[in-house]
Amino acid sequence: MESIDKKNVSPLEKLSKRDTIKLRKKHIGASVTLFFKKNPIKIVRGEGQYMYDEKDEQYLDCINNVAHVGHCHPHVVKAAAEQMGQIYTNSRYLHDNIVIYAKRLTEYFPKELSICYFVNSGSEANDLALRLARCHTKQKDVISIDGAYHGHLTSTIDMSSYKFTKINGGKKKKWVHVAPLPCSYRGRYTLDDYSADEIGKLYADEVHTLIKNAKVAGRSIAAFIGESMISCGGQVLLPKDYLKNVYKYVRDAGGVCIADEVQVGFGRVGKMWAFETQGVIPDIVTIGKPMGNGHPVACVVTTQEISKSFERIGTEYFNTYGGNPVSLAVANAVLDVIENERLSEHAVQVGESMMKDLYQLKDKYSVIGDVRGMGLFIGIELVTSRVTKEPATMLAEYVVSKFKEQRILMSTEGKYGNVLKFKPPMVFNHENAKHLLEKLDEILQEVSNSVQARTSSLSSIQSTDSVNFESFSSDSLSDESDSLISE
Amino acid sequence: MESIDKKNVSPLEKLSKRDTIKLRKKHIGASVTLFFKKNPIKIVRGEGQYMYDEKDEQYLDCINNVAHVGHCHPHVVKAAAEQMGQIYTNSRYLHDNIVIYAKRLTEYFPKELSICYFVNSGSEANDLALRLARCHTKQKDVISIDGAYHGHLTSTIDMSSYKFTKINGGKKKKWVHVAPLPCSYRGRYTLDDYSADEIGKLYADEVHTLIKNAKVAGRSIAAFIGESMISCGGQVLLPKDYLKNVYKYVRDAGGVCIADEVQVGFGRVGKMWAFETQGVIPDIVTIGKPMGNGHPVACVVTTQEISKSFERIGTEYFNTYGGNPVSLAVANAVLDVIENERLSEHAVQVGESMMKDLYQLKDKYSVIGDVRGMGLFIGIELVTSRVTKEPATMLAEYVVSKFKEQRILMSTEGKYGNVLKFKPPMVFNHENAKHLLEKLDEILQEVSNSVQARTSSLSSIQSTDSVNFESFSSDSLSDESDSLISE
Fold it and tell me: Which chain B positions have a beta carbon within 8 Å of A131's beta carbon?
């Protein structure tokens, strides 16, 4: 291995950080972006809710929902290593791991959802969900939510306005219908004008309108796909009765309902699946990220009826790695830990306590426009004005960069990149929460002081409704101006 | 774990085989098929070119090209287990494994192909290749080969006539143009009528015609995608100069050329990549299966120029597991073994020796219509008549079922399922080859005797040109009538 820089290689590295960056620039597609592009982090090990760089500096991980039961959980590592030494082959041979997991998994679902298809990624799962829906309904179109992200494939990008709107020349496909983001804070129907009981139905009616318009245009809906809590769209909790009404409209139109639980499933929000908080039963559920704690494994869960439609048209579904014994050993081990360590209950306790503290911070700083969350799924929306709700995008980026200095990994979400996203490994504890909130308080206090000083007046960030945060752009963020775009 | 059948659980199992089957029927989509549906095999461990069932019966694996360096190779298992205990996170953080592998990998390619995108499966790789091609050319259509298989996703199935023609109501999409399978044995241009030097150009001219017709219809070609040796299409070697001419036509039309090396790459055919046997340099190469020896990892390799086009439109390509440190630890370890054990040279030696012996068997049995191969990629095409070349599909299935009785795992390929496919782990050795060919000889001899006896005449399988193999259908295959459909 040629390396110019041999003296700066720590015992935890094979290459110096400089050489790693150099080779990455040379050989990895530039579209594959790094966190903190201008000064990226090199991570060499992880444990629980912590990651460590090449200098063994500890970072508190507040964003990696994939490392669900904690980075490198020994029970999961052991299960994977043992199975890897036994057999690592495809699902055309019988194996116990796949059926044991399928049985355990489906016990967490309403009885209708009894059939599993194992795949390698959430993207593959959502693509297969689309195939199943189209096959079952013999219809083609899809309704997805504005700001949604459902995967990196041709088909799933077409369904993800979060993606296709960001690609130059990216156009919405005719078979895709984009429903407004059902946010109660920002959007067409908010708590400013409506009661919490009305909003869900009003946003669902927008979906109804899309269905009717599609029909007029001679089109028909195969599926509605939506996260049961919206992640990339801005950590948005669905309003009461939203899915209940949407599912009814979609089913009346002959479509099926897909719940994308790839980011929010496996107990994060206090229920095993986020759709449970909406009192609905989807026809197809996709799960992924937390399922393998880092290992590429995902799954589509559906009904016997939909599965039979797929079989009936003569499909042979083969996925080289889908359902292999190692992926399922990992998935079984992850489920063990979720159960044994009561991680969902833990998430509720830590999350509820955090929400209380965040409401206090909201009272203190007017830049916090909204705080929303459930369990260890929390969004903190920053605004320059509580009246206009203008997104404080630069400030959010600044906060993230200040967190990085404090060795806390945070990130932003939402159409305007102004929502601080909190979605940590589920072992994130009360002490971590306390630390995080203290630092957030400090950062916002510093911002507040700085604004006060600069405006040279008594109208502070704490008492005015509108503040200019342009000052936090090119200056403060000179080295960290790239936001953490995450999915 | 509820289990009715506790007494039949071997020490290597968690469930009895009966319970495994029962749970599989209950919870796994029926479209996910098993080898030998009616009497499937339960595999509990693997080592080198062997797999073992729950009774510790040894099977010789002649079909699993994924277990490239041998099932559960200790060097690979060790590398994976170690990395899994350190860090298993996404490629937004710097890590040495990804860049070291990218450097090593691209050294095996012509210098133009210097950029890597890591994904989880061959399907994801081919989908990304399609995205790259469309983005770079700003054109939409794709030419693929009849009988091709490029993956299980919506987009890749559309490009795979092997798949979409088998789905009831499955129609070719307008953006897909299917070129004839360039087979020198069966098809439009064969060695019966043309010289080996002419065939490649003639089949390439068919692609040229497709391009011209597309143009007349107002369509334009983004890409030609083709395996550099055709796997599912029937273990077909491309005729001389085929890709050279096809690539020229495609590039003249503004398209790019994608070589799908997911099944045939990594030294199997004596060259690292099968496209090298055609003297061409593709614009995009997809690799997968052997890359991780069972672990879900795949890659798209392309040029700086195409990568830049992708970046230019504003793409941020994020793949949750793509390029993670564990997948790349595995890929690096696989590459170590390929290099250290000189597996490609080994493949050539064993393969050449097998081809010689297979030509002898072809002289002996007229049911062998064609034998073709390179390295450890071999196809044996069975026919009922050498004159009409009618596919001996039932016979091929019968041979596979007889092999199973002998604890040899073989499978069939091709549009008619009459091609015995040989694509074993690369550690398959001379002794294994001798055993396999002895058994094939025995099976064909038995078939020959049986036909002779039944026709009660001296016109035997060895001397006539046409034999009726219907007798090998429902009777002989009562328990094994399902062929091994493989991808």
Answer: 154
Distance of CA B159 to the CA centre of its chain: 16
Does residue B116 surpass a pLDDT of 50? yes
pTM, two decimal places: 0.94
Give the residue among A485, A404, A397, A410 at the shortest CA–CA distance from A447: A397
Per-residue pLDDT at A486 exceeds 70: no
Which of B40, B67, B316 is opposite residue A94, by nearest beta carbon? B40
Q: How far apart are CA B283 and CA B286, in angstroms?
A: 10
pLDDT digit string, tens, across residues A186-244: 999 999 999 999 999 999 999 999 999 999 999 999 999 999 999 999 999 999 999 99
Nearest CB to A1 within list B100, B316, B323: B100
User: Considering only A220-224, A452-456, B408-412, which range has the smallest mean pLDDT?
Assistant: A452-456
Residue B209 φ then ψ, to 5°: -60, -45
The 10s digit of each residue's pLDDT in B189-236 is: 999 999 999 999 999 999 999 999 999 999 999 999 999 999 999 999
Q: How far is B229 from chain A (nearest CA, A)?
A: 19
Ramachandran class of A331: left when φ > 0, alpha when ψ lies in -120 to 50, beta otherwise: alpha
DSSP calls for B467-478: ---GGGTTTTTT
Interatomic CA distance for residues A485 and B15, integer angstroms: 45
* DSSP per-residue codes, B338-349: HHHTTHHHHHHH
Instruction: Give the separation between CA A288 and CA A298, rounded to whole angstroms.
Output: 4
CB-based contact B116:A28 (threshold 8 Å): yes
Residue contacts between A and B (CB atoms, under 8 Å): 359
Tabulate helix, strand, coil % of chain A (nearest 5): 40, 20, 45
Q: Do A27 and B166 make contact, defined as CB atoms within 8 angstroms?
A: no
Residue B352 has pLDDT above 90, yes or no: yes
Task: Compute the average pLDDT of residues A107-118.
Answer: 98
Residue from B298, B264, B363 nearest B122 by CA: B298
Query: What's the rounded Cα separation, in Å, for the pair A367 and A384?
Result: 6
With CA atoms as reference, report the closest residue to B381 among B433, B416, B356, B350: B416
Asked whether residue B464 carries a pLDDT value surpassing 50, the answer given is no
- The predicted pLDDT at position B460 comes to 46
Q: Which amino acid is at B284?
A: I
ipTM of this predicted structure: 0.94
| Tokens encoding A35 | 């966190």
Give the length of chain B: 487
Q: Do B169 and A313 touch (CB under 8 A)?
A: yes
End-to-end CA distance of chain B: 33
The beta strands (E) that lie in A34-146 are given as 43-47, 50-53, 58-61, 113-119, 141-145
CB A326 within 8 A of CB B294: yes
Q: What is the pLDDT of residue A444?
A: 97
Long-range contacts of A47-52 (CB under 8 A, 24+ apart): A47/A71, A47/A72, A48/A425, A48/A427, A49/A424, A49/A425, A49/A427, A49/A428, A49/A429, A49/A432, A51/A409, A51/B87, A51/B89, A51/B93, A52/A12
B94 with A23: CB under 8 angstroms? no
Map residue A118 onto helix, strand or coil.
strand
Contact A191, A386 (CB under 8 A): no
pLDDT for A203 equals: 98
Distances B419 to A35, A86, B49, B121, B360 between C-alpha atoms, Å: 50, 31, 21, 26, 18
Residue B377 in 3-state DSSP?
strand
The span from the CA of A446 to the CA of A365, in Å, is 11
**A318 and B32 in contact by Cβ < 8 A?**
yes
Using H for helix, E for strand and C for coil, what is the string for B290-315? HHHCCCCCEEEEEEHHHHHHHHHCCC
Could you tell me if A276 and A254 are in contact, meaning their C-beta atoms sit under 8 angstroms apart? no
Sign for the CA dihedral angle at A21, A26, A32, A38 comes to: positive
Residue A2 to residue A471: CA distance in whole angstroms = 44
